[in-house]
Amino acid sequence: MNNTAIYGDLKGGKLLLAAFVLALANFMVVLDMTIANVSVPHITGSLAVSSSQGTWVITSYAVAEAICVPLTGWLTARFGAVRVFSTCLLGFTIFSILCGLSTGLAMLVICRIGQGIFGGPIMPLSQMLLMRIFPPEKHGQAMGLWAMTTVVGPILGPILGGTISDNLSWHWIFFINIPVGIFCAVAAMRLLKPAETAIKKLKIDSIGLALLIIWIGSLQLILDLGHDHDWFNSGLIVSLAIIALIGFVVFIIWEMTEEHPVVNIKIFKYRGFTVATIALAFGFGAFFGSIVLIPQWLQINLGYTATWAGYLTATMGIGSLTMSPIVAKLPGKYDQRALACFGLILLTGVTLMRAFWTSNADFMALAWPQIIQGFAVPFFFIPLTNMALASVRPEEIASAAGLMNFLRTMAGAIGASIAVTFWDDHAKVARSEMVSSMHIQDSQQALVGSGMSPEMALGAISGMVDREALTLSVNHVFLIFELIFLFASLLIWLCPRPKRTVGLDQRH
Questions:
Q1: Res 447: pLDDT
Q2: What pLDDT sits at residue 171?
Q3: Which of the 8 DSSP states describes residue 304?
Q4: How many CA atoms lie within 13 A of 194 on its CB side?
Q5: CA-to-CA dists, residue 392 to 219, 266, 272, 385, 498, angstroms
Q6: Could you write out the DSSP letters of every residue in 202-232?
Q7: Where in the chain is CATH 1.20.1250.20?
Q8: How many Cβ atoms from other residues are within 10 Å of residue 334's Cβ?
Q9: Which of 402, 215, 222, 373 is nearest to 286 (CA)?
Q10: Are 262 and 381 a contacting pair, CB within 8 Å?
Q11: Dihedral sign from CA coordinates of 122, 127, 128, 130
Q12: How many H helices and E strands in the chain?
């Protein structure tokens, strides 16, 4: 393949501006995934609905996005990468406006589905287009820029969402997308024409698409509703699980035999792509589970406000912003497997540090693991992304990026669900064990002797037991995540050694 046909005339300032537009678009979508989470209480209060109904604001977006991400490859082949990217940006912006103007839950959920439909392809396409506008020797740096926006987005999302909702209104978490979306869409249409891909007349795999919607939708509902419905003790969850399993099996069989599949599963024939993607999914699942769990534990157990919990979480951004551009230059000099392994081993050590947190830990004791984790994340995220996409043929990059981001998104959802569920369930067990081993009457009498009433003494004992049980439980969750990180660090070495960074002209 002639590389000059890919880069077009994008050089100098145009190239930098195009890269900035792609990174900004990706950041907007990643930020939107998390910014609404902390605003759900404000939304439910404003619309006068229950908190369980409010979760559909999150669920609706996640389901739509999860379905559309794997479609990126087909959409790109059928309509062109730049055309799809620009259209998705405009659609995302329009539905962001409608979300902000929503006056009822039904309208908001429908508009969030629209957001998810148009937002899904933006992330993998921004990744693909960055590689198309940069020469092969700069692909590592391009992926570093992309990874930086992907990592920092979930960090800033909760802080920004909480601040906007507390000081303005929840409507503005959607309105802030308007100037960014319009700017990126217009700039993409003007700057990225040289990076447009060839168009093929492909038929839509309607059966595959229907099966995809069924099993992903069922799985996402299980993850979102499982904890509230006591998981598999609920007939609803069991039914959804059966539907998801059957739908998944039939989907795989159908896509393997379909001439023009809606999701190109055959990409998994590349060992480098398969191993790197699985390792990335395990690592990101544990990573996302921890950044969901930590703010909740800080607020419930240590009395942190949502704002300060967000600030503590955001300390991770120091390392991510610092190291991402540096790590991006390393794949061409060092074995990417070693870089990824180093990052995951560092995450293993950090997670082990968290497994010894106590209920009286101060701010810096909690912040140091976050800061170190920020330095570690680019080391595993950037090399694994490079290895995965460098393992496929040029025309398969869009499909590969879609699959990789889909699995990463699903792994994050599963990791968060497992973390919160295990934390809650194990805290109940730990509390029961602590109570059974305590001499409550003696403790109560001692507190009464210090001036408390019997009721106040029991309340103080109960509060102490709850705090310690939750802390013990969170420690155990981090022990599990530590093992997952360690497993991913070993799994990487099954990947063949990449000959170079991501290159659009290479075949492995």
A1: 65
A2: 87
A3: -
A4: 18
A5: 28, 11, 8, 12, 11
A6: ----HHHHHHHHHHHHHHHHHHHHTTTTTGG
A7: 1-204, 263-508
A8: 11
A9: 373
A10: no
A11: positive
A12: 22, 0
The residue among 289, 313, 310 whose CA lies nearest residue 478 is 289
Q: Residues of the chain whose pLDDT is less than 70?
A: 1-12, 37-38, 40-41, 50-55, 59, 137, 140, 154, 224, 306, 331-332, 437-449, 451, 453-454, 458, 460, 498-508
> What CATH number has the domain spanning 263-508?
1.20.1250.20
CA distance 30 to 151: 9
Residue located via tokens 């919990």: 309
Per-residue pLDDT tens for 253-286?
998 888 878 778 888 888 999 999 999 999 988 9
What is the distance between the alpha carbons of residues 408 and 285, in angstroms, rounded to a whole number?
7
Query: What pLDDT is stored for residue 251 in this prediction?
Result: 92
Tokens of 488: 């991913």
Residues 318 and 312: their CA atoms lie apart, in Å, by: 11
Ranges assigned E (strand) in 57-151:
none
Q: Which of 131, 14, 111, 122 is closest to 56 using CA atoms?
A: 111
Q: What is the CATH number of domain 1-204?
A: 1.20.1250.20
**What share of residues in the chain are helix, strand, coil (percent, to 5)?**
80, 0, 20
